[in-house]
Amino acid sequence: MPNLDLLLTFLEIYRTGSLSAAAQRLGVTQPAVSGQLARLEEQLGEPLFVRSRKGVAPTQRAAALAARVGLHVDELRGALDSTDVPPALRGTVRVGGAAEVMSLRVLPALCPLTRRGLCVHATLGLADDLLSLLVAGRLDLVVSAVRPTDEALLAVPLIDEEFVLVAPPAVAHTVDRERLEADPAEALAHIPVIGYAEELPILRRYWRTEFGRRPPNPVTMIVSDLRAVLAVVAAGAGISVLPRYIADPALAAGDVVQLHQPEIAPLNTLYLATRRGAPANPAVTVLRDHLQRAAQEWNEL
């Protein structure tokens, strides 16, 4: 069982993305930090970080460990502090993400932290735009549907979204089931689709993954909110592909039906992205760890 000192060192490395920055935060030498990390990795039997000239990147095991122990370690630190509110929960954290996942999962999950003194400013938008704001220092953390490629950013997996193809029941009855099994793209080609963006990114990915081609369907509506897409599908305007966590209530109520049953559910990973290095506000790392812990209870979206 790793001792508290090893876990403290691990969390500082994880949060700063650098052995030297972690050493500075802890007030020890870099060789001491390297030695403690080596001891922890030896105890766990696997590496926790991948080294590079830019610093260190966490492995999936490291992300899981940080999510499991981060909040507990911070609470122990807070219990030893003389103030009523742990310093790490003071101030404001600027968080960005898509409107749907932020509204239905992320922001409700942050309420326990706001009750402890944290202020959250949320910006809703598309992943590329939000990641640009993150690089520019105008956001502190982004829940991103695409993996960041900018070397200034550090990203860890948060959770997988599962996608389902849904239709109103009346439209589903017009589909020939045998033809759907034999050639699904052709069987569905006559049905209008509702897209999230003009490029039909979600629909296009589903069609290519499951049917091996782009969707040939006519487009009847584009709306940049997946909850609105669901409402339009339920109203009978056509079919679309949605994350399961958005579609599930309507599926359970019978307002829409799942039109296609893939052998393996199509998934898309959501990432937690921050800038590399120690944040000016330590509440950013507390919030990141809290979200990873909360996501473990969401299962797949």
Quick rundown:
By secondary structure, this protein is α/β, with parallel strands linked by helices. It has 14 helices and 11 strands.
Keywords:
elongated, alpha/beta, two-stranded antiparallel sheet, single chain, 11 strands, 301 residues, seven-stranded mixed β-sheet
Q: Explain this structure to me?
A:
This is LysR family transcriptional regulator. Belongs to the LysR transcriptional regulatory family. Residues 2-59 form the HTH lysR-type domain. There is one protein chain. This protein is an alpha/beta fold. It contains 14 helices and eleven strands. Strands 3, 4, 5, 6, 9, 10 and 11 form a seven-stranded mixed beta sheet that branches. Strands 1-2 form a two-stranded antiparallel sheet. The chain starts with a helix and ends with a helix.
Catalogue the unreliable spans.
82-88
In DSSP terms, counting alpha (H) and pi (I) runs of 4 or more, how many helices?
14
Structural class: alpha/beta
Q: Which geometry do the CA atoms define?
A: elongated
Order of helices and strands: HHHEEHEHHEHEEHHHEHEHEHEEH
The biggest sheet amounts to: 7 strands, mixed
Strand content: 15-25%
N→C terminal distance: 32 Å
